[in-house]
């Protein structure tokens, strides 16, 4: 049971974490738009991605180091802090030199690393209690029953590959960059696409 009030949630650590998440995903979204669009949208996304990335880097360093020093008793998690910083810097550099695909991959790697870092720091807790550590939710007392876990494992084994194949297929179908020229006019109707529309390959 949560024992604090609403404004207790707005502590400095939580605010820094929120701003870190905000700017990380703003940057990631801008990098994705740079990769998947051309023309005006591409230019605007490319222009804002680097400043957003630098702001995200500042907040991320503060948040990750704060988390490591205040909440982690595992020296090995410093590896993820350093790796995340290198991936993010590499993504910014790749974006600056026009390697949009690598920029997206490195940005995504940073986000995955951040999630792994937080779970590694918390382990075996899932939701630590600030008033009494014995009241914390752990991977043991927060997990479902054995039968539920067995059923969900079977479901995951069947459907996760299907979802991955579907996602790969949709990415392949929409692999071309999008610009205003490939969007049909509303006057043509939703099914009356031009016979030939220019496409810009992803570089």
Shape: globular
The mean pLDDT is 85
**Strands in their spatial order, largest beta sheet:** 1-2
Strand tally is 2
Q: Report the structural category.
A: mainly alpha
Strand content: under 5%
Domain count: the total is: 2
Describe what you observe in this structure.
It contains 5 helices and 2 strands, in the order H-H-H-H-E-E-H. By secondary structure, it is an all-alpha fold. It folds into 2 domains: 134 residues; 60 residues, no CATH class. The protein has a two-stranded antiparallel sheet with strand order 1-2. The chain is globular, with a radius of gyration of 22 Å.
What attributes does this structure have?
203 residues; mainly alpha; 2 domains; 5 helices; 2 strands; 63% helix
How would you sum up this structure in a few lines?
This protein has 203 residues and is mainly α. The chain has five helices and two strands; from the N terminus they run H-H-H-H-E-E-H. It has a two-stranded antiparallel sheet with strand order 1-2.
Topology of helices and strands:
Blueprint (H helix, E strand, L loop, with lengths): L11 H25 L3 H32 L6 H19 L3 H23 L2 E3 L9 E2 L7 H28 L30
Antiparallel strand pairs: 1-2
Helix pairs in contact: 1-2, 1-4, 2-3, 2-4, 3-4
